[in-house]
Specification:
It contains four helices and 30 strands. It is mainly β. The chain folds into three domains: 5-156, Immunoglobulin-like, CATH 2.60.40; 165-296, Immunoglobulin-like; 319-453, Cupredoxins -  blue copper proteins (Immunoglobulin-like, Sandwich). Strands 10-9-12-17-14-15 form a six-stranded mixed sheet, with no helix packed on it. A six-stranded mixed sheet has the order 21-20-23-28-25-26, with no helix packed on it. Strand 25 and strand 26 form a beta hairpin. The structure holds CU-O-CU linkage (C2O) and copper (II) ion (CU) (2 copies).
């Protein structure tokens, strides 16, 4: 743990990432333009947390903190991370939402071998899109994400975005009891339903924190749902906030309505006009307070809404010549039989993924032509919602039979109960890509498939 602590400090110093300023207000200093590359040494290791006052939680952490060290990179530049595994279990890192080459995608036995205890792996890829992303293992996910192996990855815009201030808020609901001990990350009875929820909600690892923000300024809040189960229904009563990006991808700024649903894996970039000094705003999940945003005097001239963020260079699908493929997400009544391997409660087009079968990816559920245009019809046949995520490529959400959609690019779409939605994309990244529900319980009990682009 000493080691990981030292590495964190070294990593931060080398990067010139803004630290905590006076009063805990974190002012973003940006990055000098002449930094050609960014190198991190990221260590996964056990770390005791004090989530419940006076009690110890035996977490696992990236870079000595859980959620993990915030990694940053500039759009179009190469991110190089030497990942060192000091856990007692094997693991990998997946870079959620980054359109990268398949061999950097971090899925064991699909894109790489697991990184064994004591080993390291060099991840290195260009980040083509600016926005808020995150990273997590793709091995034994219920336990590894559950214990804290989740972290933000921020890709800064090529040119300064117009936001002078920003904060990253990683949302996680810990599976711990009143004494800080871990409770089950996955219970079969719940895996077959909405997934196993934790009990203690937190932001950046702190339950119900007070976050200080500069009065009168417009602050970019990067909300990242790093949780395994919970869909947060975010609202900021009394706050003046606008949505600038969904899952990393810019949208035409619009007011944050009441209850923005943020499923596991999803992100929301908000601009918040911080009220006059001394005011407090509750950031809530439905009626429940997640954090208090406190306005503190900043001594700066009041800020105004920045212009919309520039679009990311995602290829536009041509619907006229797109091929349509259908995916049904089904609940299956097959009961768990421990002699036949892990429980399978979910399937896609009649196929359940088996997390213990290293060869599942050799049987892709669909094979796409490199450069081809595709429409996927996603049909949820169950009464539980599924945040459906695709690796390697961003897709455009076209429409839904349940709600009005202004088409936008994303990597995760929250498919509501019994909803049918259409997405489209250009299969421009060759590889075998995972396509799965980001409720980890669902993913680990069948709701995952491989899609190959050849
Ligand atoms: Cu967050 Cu398979 O990914
Ligand atoms: Cu992903
Ligand atoms: Cu699901």
């Amino acid at each position: 743990m000493n080691l990981s602590r030292r590495q964190v400090v070294a990593g931060l110093a080398a990067l010139g990432v803004a630290g905590l300023g006076a009063g805990g207000v974190r002012y973003w200093l940006g990055r000098t333009r002449d930094v050609a590359s960014h190198d991190y040494e990221l260590i996964a290791a056990p770390l005791d947390l004090e989530l419940v006052p006076g009690h110890r939680t035996p977490a696992w952490a990236y870079g000595g903190q859980a959620p993990g060290l915030e990694l940053r990179c500039r759009q179009g530049e190469r991110l190089r991370v030497r990942f060192i595994n000091r856990l007692e279990v094997e693991t990998t890192i997946h870079w959620h939402g980054i359109r990268l080459p398949i061999d950097m995608d971090g899925v064991p036995y699909v894109s790489q071998l697991p990184v064994k205890p004591g080993e390291y792996f060099d991840y290195e890829f260009v980040c083509p899109d600016a926005g808020s992303y995150w990273y997590h293992p793709h091995t034994a996910s219920a336990e590894q994400l559950g214990r804290g192996l989740v972290g933000p990855l921020i890709v800064e815009e090529r040119e300064p975005s117009g936001f002078a201030h920003e904060r990253t808020l990683s949302l996680k609901t810990w599976h711990v009891d009143e004494r800080g001990a871990f409770t089950a990350f996955s219970l079969p009875r719940l895996a077959a339903r909405e997934g196993t929820r934790g009990r203690l909600s937190s932001i950046n690892g702190v339950p119900n924190p007070t976050l200080e923000l500069p009065a009168g300024q417009v602050v970019r809040l990067r909300l990242i749902n790093v949780d395994s189960t919970v869909t947060y229904r975010l609202n900021l009563p009394g706050g003046e906030a606008r949505i600038y990006a969904l899952d990393g991808n810019p949208v035409e700024p619009r007011p944050l309505g009441k209850d923005h649903w943020l499923g596991p894996g999803m992100r929301l970039d908000l601009a918040l006009k911080v009220p006059a000094a001394g005011n407090e705003l509750p950031l809530r999940n439905g009626p429940l307070r997640l954090a208090t945003l406190r306005s503190v005097a900043s001594g700066e001239a009041p800020g105004d809404w920045p212009p919309p963020l520039p679009a990311n260079p995602v290829a536009e699908p041509d619907l006229a010549r797109a091929e349509t493929l259908r995916f049904n997400f089904e609940w299956t009544a097959t009961l768990a039989d421990p002699r036949k391997g892990p429980a399978r409660y979910w399937q896609i087009n009649g196929q359940a993924w088996d997390i213990n079968d290293k060869r599942c990816a050799e049987r892709p559920i669909a094979s796409l032509r490199h450069g081809g245009h595709y429409i996927f019809v996603l049909r949820n046949m169950a009464q539980y919602q599924h945040p459906i995520h695709l690796h390697g490529m961003s897709f455009k959400v076209l429409d839904s039979d349940r709600k009005r959609i202004t088409p936008y690019f994303t990597d995760t779409y929250l498919l509501g109960k019994n909803e049918t939605a259409r997405i489209a994309f250009v299969a421009d990244n060759p590889g075998v890509w995972m396509f799965h529900c980001h409720v980890i319980d669902h993913m680990e009990t069948g709701l995952m498939a491989a899609i190959e682009v050849v």
